[in-house]
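Recap for those who missed Tuesday's class. We walked through two folding examples back to back. For each one, the amino acid string is listed first and its predicted structure tokens come directly after. Nothing is annotated here on purpose, so try labeling regions yourself before you check the end of the notes.
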Amino acid sequence: MLHKIVATKKQEVERLRAEVSLAEMERLIADLPPCLSLKRRFLERRRPVGVIAEVKKASPSKGLIRDPFDPLAIARAYEAADVEGMSVLTDAPYFQGHLSYLRNIKEGLTKSIPLLRKDFLIDPLQLYEARAHGADVVLLIAAILDKKSLCWMAEEARALGLEILVEVHTAEELDTVLDAVEPDLLGINNRDLKTFTTSLATTLNLLGQLPQSTVTISESGIHSPDHIMTLMEAGIDGVLVGEHFMRQANVEQAVCSLVGHAAYASKGASR
């Protein structure tokens, strides 16, 4: 499945390159305000384990997750729960996402909450696209980027003012990332993108190999306070949660039930 997704992304990039020039992209982003810092939000968080809450309609493994699906209403519920950041799925063929969700959410929120573009990014044009549509942070996936490409994409993202959340799943990917770039945030994906099986042990096994200063996010398969407690005791800074929240009727309450109310937690908790 991962190879299929990447092949689709290559086709999307070629279409984008035919439709818009780099100079046009540069004009689109020239007057945008500075990006918000997701890293700072985690370093200054007011709950022991912070959360990146995901706006997600569907997935290749689970199919349709939320119907009806109103991205802005979901984002406003997350805003009310004072999440540290939001992840917005923009992949259309496999996750039923759209780039317009990013812009609509950015313009529709009243609080300053960093937005992550969640997609399979393989070319700098996608970074310009993300910046133009309101992203503050982009996801770089080690499973689809070799060391040279990872360095290139990280450099280009930072030149645009974007922070990077670099995602790994294996010890080999982690070694490559730590040797190539210094991520603003390091995501450990508990889901194997080749088989779509999920295990929280992935985070627990890799966490000890990271420098103490790394802001680390556990991703996928997190849906209970017990999971949060296990990760907190291991020293995680935050979690990225999508499917669990999307399956709840009251999204704001679901966030607070899982990670707690931000105002009631000690400020600045960190590893």
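Example two. Treat it independently of the first, because the proteins are unrelated.
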Amino acid sequence: MKKLLFAIYRWPAQIAFVLHSKKMRSRCQAKKSSLLYPSCIINNPQSNRNAISIGEYTVVLGQLLVLTHSGKISVGDCSYVADNTKIWSGNSISIGDRVFISFGVNIHDYDAHSISAKNRHEQFKDIFITGRLLPLGDIKSKPIVIEDDAWVGFNASILKGVTIGRGAIVAAGAVVTHDVEPFTIVAGNPARTVGKASE
């Protein structure tokens, strides 16, 4: 009887999980075996669901966002994106297989705002008038690549134009502004090499 009551008690949560996952899947191309948890947010205002793709057996608890006019995110197989992580693309972000991204990580392939005060104000008005971020104009963007088997520690930030090599480790709180060699450990702000990782 207790088992039955426990199962009945869990039904609303299970139904909510399924409905949320279905809603998020309608905004991207996610393999059937991937898991999109209730904390997962997929923001894809583009008409192309392929702008965000999620591989086999990948778990997403964080946010994946592409801009209205541009941006692409691909996450490979058997990868993990923890809660409170934000992966935002106005260009291209490619995440390989078996990549672990801890909680509170920020990965952004574009500068959020112009360095011109006037242009920032115009952008601010555009967002509130149109409800979306219009083309970037003088805002710079460059692709980000995170290769297979990399590990990004909690509260790290990875900025535009960076490649994280295979098997590399980004320490907690690191700010990565330059490429990271394969099987290298980086830490600090800006991130610097502090050690070697093993295969």
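Answers for example two:
The two ends are 50 Å apart (CA to CA).
The longest helix spans residues 2-25.
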